């Protein structure tokens, strides 16, 4: 998915008072930005700037990312008199899937402010620029993996699972490199088509996944600098005939064994390949690699973190190793144009109606967010219209959730909580349990909402 970078010039740039200016970064800012992000975004209580963040920033500023233009998508707040960078943020475009529908996504990243300038609204100003940029590019969704609570104030809701998975005790992993007819080797450029097709096939298990074209896979393979924060080692699993049957991605040799843990971010096998047969070879490779990292760092290797989401076929194959369940964190999501987004993913909603009790459903579904809402109109099982809607404030009588012919809402979702069911993060029942003011008028509406918006696992490995 391509975008017109000429449309991303933000209206929010310019002087913002107190001797500061918000502007788009240029190539001449690279060294200053590298030093700034490494210093401000260091690990919690770390005594020195973070070299991995520095390398990642340099990757972006040098244009290594296949879909990131640093001159259009990096913003800084600068002290006019000294020229010092005070705050920064960027927007990394990528493509995800909602079911089998591609969606254009922007990931705000490298967001930070110098400590002595915090609390002055600089991040809010940066987000105004980012949101204008996202609108100009026609992005369907913005997603942040960020600190607790903070991004809610900019219109984001925690509404999609992030990481989570299983943690294995390294001492329980099989040793040696002889396991059936499979082995793991480093991926090469020639493996990119096989890796891409395997990833696309696996995406059918999930509601939301990230998409990678060939240029994105090459970026994962060799595009990042060795010290980059998101550098991974991309490997393929091959059979006795040396043909690839799957792939995996794990933390690189230049990354720390964080918490004595080797992290896996992706692991998939081609269709008709047995997880039970391949898993011993996978685990033997992981044990050998983790031990190699530990020797190089003079550190311990005690755990393997399978950050593959809450649901993955590998988990059934490792039950005998008694893995610990690691609950997921969450992505913050912001949908700039909610009616437009729902219209865009209408094919997925119509597929859910097909074969259900609502296969030929006709009528309106009115959803109130208390301040705003949506009206969905169906005809013969097709979603024919989605519009913004607000329940009138002159209706007579107190709301008692009784059936009615008046133009009242069929269901109520406080604030941004509707995003949690839209993205499969929570079931309707879970949401109603957590929010007493999440209300549904009739059993028929509850059944329709459950068909349209079922709880579904997602697995997003972003291209950053």
How does this structure look, described?
The protein has 464 residues and is of the alpha+beta class. The chain contains 13 helices and 21 strands. It has helices at residues 30-40, 51-61, 70-73, 122-136, 192-202, 214-223, 275-297, 314-317, 338-344, 346-353, 418-422, 428-434, 443-452, and strands at residues 14-17, 20-24, 74-79, 85-98, 101-113, 141-144, 157-162, 165-169, 183-186, 208-211, 232-238, 244-251, 261-269, 303-306, 324-326, 329-334, 363-368, 373-379, 382-388, 411-412, 439-440. Helix 7 links the parallel strand 13 and strand 14. The longest helix has 23 residues, at 275-297.
Q: What's the arrangement of secondary structure elements?
A:
Blueprint: E1 14-17, E2 20-24, H1 30-40, H2 51-61, H3 70-73, E3 74-79, E4 85-98, E5 101-113, H4 122-136, E6 141-144, E7 157-162, E8 165-169, E9 183-186, H5 192-202, E10 208-211, H6 214-223, E11 232-238, E12 244-251, E13 261-269, H7 275-297, E14 303-306, H8 314-317, E15 324-326, E16 329-334, H9 338-344, H10 346-353, E17 363-368, E18 373-379, E19 382-388, E20 411-412, H11 418-422, H12 428-434, E21 439-440, H13 443-452
Parallel strand pairs: 5-6, 13-14, 17-20
Antiparallel strand pairs: 1-2, 2-3, 3-4, 4-5, 4-10, 6-16, 7-16, 8-14, 8-15, 9-11, 11-12, 12-13, 17-18, 18-19, 20-21
Query: With helices defined by DSSP (H or I, 4 residues minimum), what is the helix count?
Result: 13
Q: Estimate the mean pLDDT confidence.
A: 93
Largest sheet: 9 strands, mixed
Q: Cα-atom Rg, whole angstroms?
A: 24 Å
Low-confidence stretches: 1-9
Strand coverage percent? 25-35%
Structural class: alpha+beta
Give the N-to-C terminal Cα separation.
16 Å
Number of strands: 21
- Broad shape: globular
Share of helix, binned: 25-40%
